[in-house]
Amino acid sequence: MQGGRWRTLTLCGLLLALLPMRHAEAVNPETLLMPGKLTQAHAKYEEQCTQCHDRASSNPGARQTQLCLDCHKEIREDIQRQRGYHGHLQGIAGTQCAACHAEHLGRSADIVKLVPEQFDHAQTDYPLHGAHTAVPCSGCHVAGKHYRDAPRDCLSCHRKEEPHGGRLGKDCGSCHNDSAWREVRYDHDRTAFPLRDKHVEIACAACHFGNRYKQTPKECVSCHEPDDAHGGKRGAECGKCHTTKSWKTQKFDHEKETGFALLGAHANVACNECHRSGNMKDKIPKDCFGCHQGEDPHAGRMGKQCGQCHGNEKWKPASGFDHARDGHWALEGRHQKIACEACHTAPVASQKLKTECLACHRPNDVHAGKLGRKCEQCHTPAGWRSSVSFDHDLTSYPLVGLHVAVPCEQCHLTRQYRDVGKQCNDCHAADDVHKGRRGSDCARCHSPNGWKLWEFDHEKETGFGLRGAHSKLACESCHRKPPGELKLPQDCLSCHEKDDIHLGEYGRQCDRCHSTFTWKGARVQ
User: Fold this and answer.
1) For 256, which of 292, 404, 490, 520 is 20 to 30 Å away at the CA?
2) Rounded-to-integer distance, Cα 239 and Cα 197, Å
3) Given phi > 0 = left and psi -120 to 50 = alpha, else beta, which region is 350?
């Protein structure tokens, strides 16, 4: 009992001794003992300790949490109703607010500790699905407003993208989903015009101009009059010959009616491509050259018997001609898509082509011949830039870490490939945040997996362990010159002499009373 009184008297005496230092300013003894400044958001309560602390409570932690929730009523209501972020947290009942949101860390301290990239939106009342998962936070959460105030209905965010002008109401989810606006699930079978075949793929606006959905015509010619290849000569009842699968999918039996079966690509040709006069009774040729003479890429060099190489399916590739067998040179990769005349510029009987790459591709050689003539050592017929098989590990500079994902052109500014430096600063001088103060041996601390993945052990390498507030300092705060030019002393006053309020009266051994965490709370030994 006596000892408690003496401690109380001693504490009061110390406080009274400190009062003159604050001049005429009113002094709250509790603020002199608080561990640090409040954040800017709570700064107005700094002189009102009882706003957050109840000294008379038998359970200060629980009482402090209650005081927090008295101010943050919306959080308290979320917890009670199990809604919002705090309401979805498991085991939050009985948890103290200070367990996550510590105060007295300074004006600029972050007590929310929200990391948007790691935030699990499933713990809120609005889980993200579909395309919403790729939207940046700022797309919905406006700067300066609380995250909880973000709207949840479709039109609040997508009003500008809503093509119906509000004519279909606000329940966007009745037709659209959150994967994409264009993924519409409206059941058109509920109308008098069920959508079948090609009509299913047509955008709504193609038929419903100006977002008008009532009194839309249902006859074929109402929409497809511009597509009528017959110019109205075959009447308005398109359904007699055509189907909804395609205009080219017809009910008309061409072989039975004309003696010319429409096979392969012919089955997809519009009638007026052959019947150009529009009169179906006009006689037209039935041999390939009769219709396709103008499309013959060989300019007659291969004769008129197109069927010897080509089929009805398509001109390219020639189905009857085996280039590996008949031409003794297999067409692989991109070569399969090249027109015959691109290589055969003269009749095949009088022209013999070389088979090495540079015979055709010398103008495409970006290396200007410096890497030899054997292009196939690195490249394939799939394409100059496709499936390049060059193995960088066989060079004197194997690619590791993030270097593997760097495009060749980022390091090799020319296509000579042998004129690139191998030191880190040859490429990354602009990225050197130390501005040369740490020398050029970047690999001593950094990893090729990322600049921020550094492993420098300051205590082991320098004999000066970074503890407390020192661990948060940027390297250049102390190392203002390269290590070879300046060796830093390790005593406190060498850096903190201007912070010494004792003006050197207690020597240079500041750690006798102070710690590396803060100057405040000195311990007298």
Assistant:
1) 292
2) 14
3) alpha
Residue 257 has pLDDT above 80, yes or no: no
Flag whether pLDDT at 13 surpasses 80: no
Burial class (CB in 10 A: 0-12, 13-18, 19+), 343: middle
- Model pLDDT for residues 128-144, shown as the tens digit of each residue: 999 999 999 988 998 88
Which of the pair, 31 or 445, is modelled with greater confidence? 445
Q: Which of 244-253, 266-275, 383-392 has the lowest mean pLDDT?
A: 244-253
- Asked if residue 381 lies in contact with residue 334, where contact means CB atoms within 8 angstroms, the answer is yes
Task: Indicate the DSSP class of residue 249.
Answer: E
Q: Please report whether residue 54 resides in a domain.
A: yes
Q: Mark 109-144 as b/e (b = at least 16 C-beta within 10 Å).
A: bebeeeeeeeeeeeebeeeeeeeeeeeeeeebeeee
Total number of domains in the chain: 2
Distance CA 172, CA 178 (A): 10
Confidence bin at 1 (pLDDT 50/70/90): very low
Residues 188-206: pLDDT tens digits? 888 888 999 989 888 888 8
Q: Quick one: average pLDDT of 19-45?
A: 72
**Would you give the DSSP letter of residue 28?**
-
Residue 71 corresponds to which tokens in the numbers above?
């101010």
Q: Tell me what percent of the residues of the chain surpass a pLDDT of 70.
A: 92
Out of 22-31, 320-329, 334-343, 427-436, least confident range: 22-31
CB contact at 8 A, 270 and 254: no
Mapped onto helix, strand or coil, the DSSP state of residue 447 is strand
Model pTM? 0.37
Q: How many other C-beta atoms lie within 10 A of the C-beta of residue 408?
A: 12
Ranges of beta strands (E only) in 17-151 are none
Cβ-based neighbours of 80, under 8 Å, separated by 6 or more: 87
Q: Print burial letters for 429-467: b (CB count within 10 Å at least 16), e (below 16).
A: eeebeeeebbeeebeebbeeeeeeeeeeeeeeeeeeebe
Fill in the amino acid letter for 437: R
- d(CA 455, CA 433) in angstroms, rounded, equals 16
Of 469 and 435, the one with more pLDDT: 469
Instruction: Annotate 154-187 with three-state secondary structure.
Output: HHHHHHHHCCCCCCCCCCHHHCECCCCCCCECCC
Whether 92 is in a domain gets the answer yes
Query: Is residue 127 a part of any domain in this protein?
Result: no
How many CA atoms within 13 Å lie on the side-chain side of 278?
8
- How far is residue 488 CA from its own chain's centroid? 43
3-class SS of residue 399: coil
Q: How buried is residue 78: exposed, middle or buried, by Cβ count under 10 Å (0-12/13-18/19+)?
A: buried
Domain-located, residue 428: yes
> What pLDDT, on the 0 to 100 scale, is given for residue 519?
81
